[in-house]
Amino acid sequence: MTAISISDLVYTYPSGVTALNGVNLEIASGERVAIIGQNGAGKTTLSRHLNGIYTPSSGTIRIGGEDTAGRGIAQLSAHVGYVFQNPADQLFAKTVRADVEFGPRNLGKGEEEVHRLADAAMAATGIAEHAEHHPYHLSPAERKRVALASVLAMDTPVIVLDEPTTGQDHVAVTQIARIIDELHERGTTVLAVSHDMDFVAENFDRVVVMAQGRVIADGTADVVFTQAEKLAEARVEPPQMLRLGAELGWDAPVTTVDGFLGELREQVPGA
Ligand SMILES: Nc1ncnc2c1ncn2[C@@H]1O[C@H](COP(=O)(O)OP(=O)(O)OP(=O)(O)O)[C@@H](O)[C@H]1O
C-alpha cells in the first residue's frame, strides 16, 4: 500500500532546460493514474523522479510517506518499479530469464521465490516461450514485454510504465491491460505515461494532463477528456469513443467501448 505525494517539484536539466515547473500531485495507494500531454510536456521527466533516476532541483517527493531525498535508485527500486519506454535502456542480460530474474534476486529474494516471480511475469507478458533466448533476438515489441516482465517480477508496491503500448499489437495491448487489472486487484499503485488515449480511457481511474512542465488538468477520463481548452493546450485528441459519441450528438461523455455500448442501448432500444 503505497501513496505518492509530489510537492512543488521543479527540475532543470544540466543543459538549463527546466522540464518541471512546480508539479503538485497526490496519488493514493492503489490508484491507476495516466499522465498525458504533448511531446516535451515533462511526463517522462516527472515519472523518472519516482524511482530516483532524477532528483528534484527543488520540491519534494514522498513515496509511502518517506521523502525520496537522499535515497538512491537502489533503495527506491524496492518500492517503485520503472519500465522504460525503450527496452534498450533496461535490458542487459544474455537471456530473457536472466533479465527477468535479476530484479527480484537483486532485492534479496530467495531462489525459489525468484523463479516463481519470474515465471509468473513471463507468463503474464506472453514471453515465456522465449525464456532462454537472447533478448536481442526478439522483436522490438517482445523486448518491450521482457522489460515489463523484469519489473513485474520485482513485485513492487508502485509500478511506473513509460509508453507501455507503443509498438504493441492488439493481443499484446489486451495482455498489458489485463496486467494492469491484476496489479490493481493486488493493490499496486500504477502510473503510466501514454500517448494512447483509448488505452488511457479504458484502463485508468484518473488522467493527469501536463503542459510545459505543469499539471493543467486532473480527473476521471470523462471529466478530463471533455475539457476541450485543456486538451487543445496539451495538444491531445480525446479517445475515439468520445469523438464518435460527439459526432452522434450524444450529450453524455462516453470514453470507453463498454460506455459506448451502454449509451447506444439507451439511445437505440434493442441495439
Ligand atoms: N536528457 C535531457 N537533457 C536536456 N533536456 C531534456 C532531456 N530530456 C528531456 N529534456 C527536455 O525536457 C523537456 C521535457 O521532456 P520530457 O521527455 O520529460 O517530456 P515528455 O512529456 O515525456 O515528452 P515525450 O512525450 O516526447 O516523451 C523537453 O523540453 C525536453 O526537450
TrEMBL record:
Q: Which organism is it from?
A: Nocardiopsis gilva YIM 90087
| InterPro entries in the record | AAA+_ATPase, ABC_transporter-like_ATP-bd, ABC_transpr_CbiO/EcfA_su, ECF_ABC_transporter_ATP-bd, P-loop_NTPase
* Domain ABC transporter as annotated: residue spans: 4-237
Q: Which GO terms describe its molecular function?
A: ATP binding; ATP hydrolysis activity; ATPase-coupled transmembrane transporter activity
Coiled coil start-end: none
Name of the protein this chain belongs to: ABC transporter ATP-binding protein
- Where in or outside the cell is it found? Cell membrane
Output the Gene Ontology cellular-component terms. ATP-binding cassette (ABC) transporter complex
The family this protein is said to belong to: Belongs to the ABC transporter superfamily.
Pfam families the record matches: ABC_tran
UniProtKB keywords = ATP-binding, Cell membrane, Membrane, Nucleotide-binding, Translocase, Transport
